[in-house]
Amino acid sequence: MADGRVGHSSDVHDRKALPRTIAIDGPAGAGKSTIADALAQRLGYLYFDTGVLYRAVTLAALRRGLAPGDHPSLAALVEQLHIDVLPPTLQDGRGLTVILDDEDVTWAIRTPEVDHNVSAVSAQPAVRQALLQRQRAVAARGGIIMAGRDIGTVVLPDADLKLYLEATPEERAQRRAVEEQSRGLERPFPEVLAEIERRDDIDSHRALSPLRPAADAIIVDTEGLDIDAVLATIDALLGQRA
Ligand code: DC
Question: Which residues of 152-162 are buried (b: 16+ CB within 10 A; e: fewer)?
């Protein structure tokens, strides 16, 4: 594994003053991927959405009929899998291309079934441990924006800039519902909301590296803000640091 995306360089900021490693954490639907992708393109950094790793492991487990709580089987499985994360290979709305053992699973990892099981799979210590080193190896390549749940707290505790995006469950579910509709997935809103709340609960209460802001993270409240407004907020933060 894993490549990421190298976007366009930007003249927005003085490059010398820019943070080289940026961690973006937050709950499902907070806008991490969209913001990280846009920011990476502007700064010419690698963008790495770590959630796709947990999703790919979950998809592989479901296909093998493994229960999300089957610790020994998951531990063995995660060691065998080959997951690659590449810049988009098709222009079909994807931000990254995800390859699982030679198969393009970019959309297969975004089904409601994977959504429903991914938090339980990612709570397994063996899964987290195996993926931790892989994430750090990607970050060692230099200018990087890494998005996830535990990037600022565990994966890159020395990141130059740590952002924690948040919004109410209702707003995040609304965004998720719109995103799913754009992919032809129709689910009743209460179901999307319940799923978001369920994942919030598992992600923030698991024993190992639970979802929470790092002590030195900057909290960005994205409630009611569109992408441009969130980017403007982050630009202002980067400007203050320059
Ligand atoms: O960001 P996402 O919704 O694609 O992430 C899917 C799941 O993966 C999320 O519910 C918890 C897990 N995850 C994690 O535990 N740690 C990360 N750094 C990223 C994702």
Answer: bbbbbeebebb
Answer yes or no: is 3 within a domain: no
Decide if 176 is inside a domain: yes
Does ligand 1 come within 6 angstroms of the Cβ of 50? Answer: yes
Q: What is the DSSP letter of 203?
A: H
27 is in an annotated binding site: yes
Whether the CB of 135 sits within 6 Å of ligand 1: no
Parent domain of 89: 17-241
- What is the pLDDT of the chain when averaged over all its residues? 90
Cα 51 to ligand 1 centroid, rounded to whole Å: 4
Q: For the residues 128-151, what does the mean pLDDT come to?
A: 92
* Residue 119 near ligand 1, beta carbon < 6 Å: yes
Domain assignment of residue 170, yes or no: yes
The answer as to whether 122 is a domain residue is yes
Beta-carbon neighbour count of residue 226 at 10 Å?
10
Q: Which tens digits make up the pLDDT trace of 216-226?
A: 999 999 999 99
CB 24 near ligand 1, within 6 Å: no
Please tell me whether 19 is known to bind a ligand. Answer: no
| DSSP code at position 217 | P
- Tally of domains in the chain: 1
